[in-house]
Amino acid sequence: MLVFPMTWTLNKKIGFVLLANSFIAVITACVILLAVNIRINRDIMVSDLVTLTDVIGHNIRTALSLNSKEEAREMLHGLAARSSVLSASVYDHRKKIFACYKCERSHEVSPDGARLLPGTVFTGSTLRIVKEITADGHVMGYIELVDDIGALRGIVRISLIVLGAVLLGALVLVSFSPIILKKYVSRPILDLAVKASSITAHGDYSIRVKTGSSDEIGLLGKAFNQMLDRIEKQNDELKTSKRLLELSVEDRTRELMEAQEKLLRTEKLATIGQLSGSIAHELRTPLSAIKGSGYFLRSLLKDLSEPRIIKHLNIIDSEIFSADRIISDVLFFGRMRPPMPAENDINTIIGEVLNCILIRNNIELVYARGAGLPPVMIDDFQIKQVMNNVIDNAMQSIEGAGKITVKTYAEPGWLVTEVSDTGCGIRKEDLGKIFEPLFSTKIRGTGLGLAICKNIMDMHRGVIDVASESGKGSSFYIKIPIGGCLNGEG
Known about the structure:
5-stranded antiparallel β-sheet; 5-stranded mixed β-sheet; 490 residues; single chain; alpha+beta; 3 domains; Heat Shock Protein 90; Beta-Lactamase
C-alpha cells in the first residue's frame, strides 16, 4: 500500500502516481519494443543469410560435380562484396574441405565433421549457418557460412537511443500533467473545499461552486450545489418560522398587556363606581350649604359697593362651580349609562357645545364646518360631553393668548372632529397614559375628563386619538363610524 507524506497536496499525490505509472508503462513498452525489434532484425538477418547460403550452394553444385576447386573458390570469393561475412567453406560429401573463403588452415587439414550439422547457430557475436548441397536427392557436399552480427548490435544501439529519447519525451510530457491536473482536478476540488470552509465559517448558504464540466468533478459540484439549495431552503423556512413565532409571541404579549391594562382599568372603574355615590353625596351637601350662604350674603350686600367683597363672592361662586363639575364627572364616570343613539348632525351638536362654552378673551376660537357631512347615529348628550371635555382641556393647556381650531370632515368610514390648540402640548412619555382614569398632569384635576371621553367613544365604537408635541400644542381626533352600530345594538 502506497503511503504519502501528510503535507502532500492532492495534486502532488495524483501527479506522483501518474508519473510513476507512466514511467513504468513507458519502460515496459520500451523493453517490449526493443525485444521485438531485436527479434525482427535477427529473423531478417537469418533469413537473408539462409537465402545467400542457398544461392551459393545451388551455384557451386557444378564445381562439386566436376571437382573444380578453383571454380568453387572463385564463387566463394564473390562474398567479398559482403563485408559482414567472416568465412565461407564448401565441403564434399565426405565432409572434407573442398573450397573456402577466409577460412582457417586447420579446417583444410583436419575438418571437424561435428560442425557440419545443418542448421543455424548463434555463437557470441557471429551467426553460423550450415546447409547441405544436394542434387537429385543425394548429398553432394556442405556449405558453411559464418557472418558477423555486429550490424545487429548497431541496430540495438540505435533502437536503445530512439527508445531512450521516446522515454525522455514521455517523461517530459508526463511532468506537465500536474499542471493539467491542477486545472481540471485539484483546482475544482480545492475550490469546493474553500467554499465549504467559507460556508462553515460565515453560514452563507448562497455560495455556489462552478460546474462547467459533466465529469465526476462536475457531478460532485452539482451535488454540492443541490445540497446547498436544500440547506438554504430549509434555513429560509427556519428563519420564516422563527419570525412568525416571534411575531406570534409579540402579538400574544401585546394581547396579555392589553388584557392586564384593561383589568387594571376595570378595577379602577369599579373602585371609582363604589366611591362615587357616597363621595358625591358627602361633598354636595356642604357645597349646597356654601352656595346657599353665598347667595344669602350677596342678597344682603347687594347695595354695597365694596369691590373686595364682590370679588370674594365671585371667587366663592367660581370654586363652587368647579367643585360641582368635578363631582359631576365622578358621578358620570362611575354611573355611565349605555348610549341612546339617534340620528344627529355633528355640526349642529358642535355648534350647540361652542355656544355654551365660555371662551377666555385672549383665546381665538375657529370653527371650520365640513360641508355635506352625513348624519350619524349617536347619543347627542354623551358626544357633547366628549366635545366639552376636549375643548376644556385645550383651553387649560393654553397659558396666555392662543388659538383653538375645531373642524369637521369625513374620511373613508369615519366622521372626524379635529380639535387643535396652540397650548403647551403633551410630553411624549405621557401620550400613552392620558386616557387612563385618574391620570392628570394638571395641579387641579381629577384625571377623569379624557377617560370619560375614551369610554363614551368606545361605547359608540368610535376612536379618540391625539397627536402632540411638547411646547407646540396638541390635536385630538374624535372619529365616529359612519353607518355603524353602537355597542348594545344588533
